[in-house]
Design a protein that fits this description.
alpha+beta; 2 domains; 6-stranded antiparallel sheet; elongated
């Protein structure tokens, strides 16, 4: 089918696309406003509970949380926008007029599908450039209980590493490889199951295949004495990637950053199946917007005066929400290794693409 035959009327196509886009983004704005208000009711006490925080920090939280809400609920808004648009056109007999002029069901849906494809492209760019940065910053801010915001988005915080029987905690980690720098380090030296010493240091770095703590203070548990040392070495077997790749926040990384992190993990011999599923989902997630007009199309066809318009709308909503349930389930199965990463990300999309086409052909074509 050629492009002119798919969009035989430019005026009708623009009219339907405009109706669809206005309703979709109006619903999205309403959802974000309501959900952000409810979220603030639960988080504002924690934000204001930190000394020095005030109204500015509350608004800063809003700027970080709103992009996450937009990314999460945009596909829902596309689904509801589709159902409302097609239901309105059906109720006003505009769908009947379009079909009586010789348009097929796919031609009626074509403007909505093209508009939703544009939404999917914008959604991917928005998630990759805005949502990932906001998620990374918010995650680090919450780890310090809404204290001072981390200086750099690339800085990792509150990383724990095991060194034999000893435990190492670094409140800040910057850099990669041999250039990795640690800050606010605590080393818990244990003998068997008992704690022997606690070592504090404001900074640490990698030198000659071992880690060096600068200006360290050693607290001995048995004697209860403190000893200040200029340099203390530890962790000959701790690799830099154990600090830098210990806690991968996939939602806080762009597509390219996550792909690089996965390659680094594979070179370090560590499993990456769950992260690969998330990587693929960064593509299939925004593309789910293209599915929504197809799944909600059942609300636009059939005679409105038959009294089944509401039932058709409910069926469209049920198909859309069933996709979201299946998508979350498949992603969870991929995270635990039950599904291959590619299958976990794309199987629900392909399945419901077939379901939507089957329902459309069954009812209209």
């Amino acid at each position: 089918m050629t492009l002119p035959s798919l969009f035989p009327s430019r005026t009708v196509s623009l009219y339907m696309a405009r109706l669809f886009l206005v309703r979709t983004f109006a619903i999205l704005a309403g959802l974000v406003l309501i959900l952000q208000t409810l979220d603030l009711l639960s988080e504002s006490a924690s934000i204001l509970g930190h000394p020095g925080n005030g109204q500015a920090q509350v608004w800063h939280y809003v700027t970080l949380r709103v992009p996450q809400l937009i990314a999460t609920f945009l596909p829902y808004a596309v689904l509801l926008g589709t159902i409302i648009t097609l239901s309105t056109l059906n109720q006003n007999s505009e769908i009947i007029a379009l079909k009586s002029s010789g348009l097929s069901a796919h031609q009626v849906l074509a403007p909505l599908l093209l508009a939703s494809l544009g939404i999917a492209i914008v959604s991917f760019a928005f998630n990759d450039r805005v949502v990932s940065r906001a998620s990374a910053t918010l995650d680090q801010w919450q780890k310090v209980d809404y204290g001072p915001v981390p200086r750099s988005r690339d800085e990792r915080s509150n990383v724990w590493v095991r060194d034999g029987n000893n435990l190492v905690r670094a409140l800040g980690v910057e850099g990669r490889g041999a250039d990795t720098r640690l800050s606010q380090i605590t080393v818990f030296r244990r003998d068997g199951g008992s704690l022997k010493q606690i070592v504090f240091a404001p900074s640490g770095e990698r030198q000659d295949d071992r880690w060096i703590l600068n200006n360290a203070v050693v607290f001995d548990i048995a004697s209860r004495t403190r000893t200040r040392l200029n340099h203390v070495s530890f962790g000959e077997e701790i690799r830099p990637d154990q600090f830098t790749l210990g806690n991968i926040n996939a939602d806080g990384m762009s597509f390219g950053e996550l792909k690089t992190a996965i390659n680094d993990l594979e070179q370090a011999g560590r499993p990456t199946e769950d992260l690969r599923g998330t990587l693929w989902h960064k593509l299939s997630g925004p593309l789910s917007a293209v599915l929504m007009p197809l799944l909600g199309a059942v609300a636009g066809f059939g005679l409105a005066r038959s009294g089944r318009l509401f039932v058709r709308a409910v069926i469209g909503m049920a198909l859309g929400f069933a996709y979201f349930v299946a998508d979350n389930f498949a992603l969870a199965m991929g995270n635990i290794g039950a599904y291959p990463p590619f299958l976990a990300a794309w199987a629900p999309f392909l399945l419901f693409l077939l379901v939507g086409e089957a329902v459309l052909f069954r009812t209209e074509e």
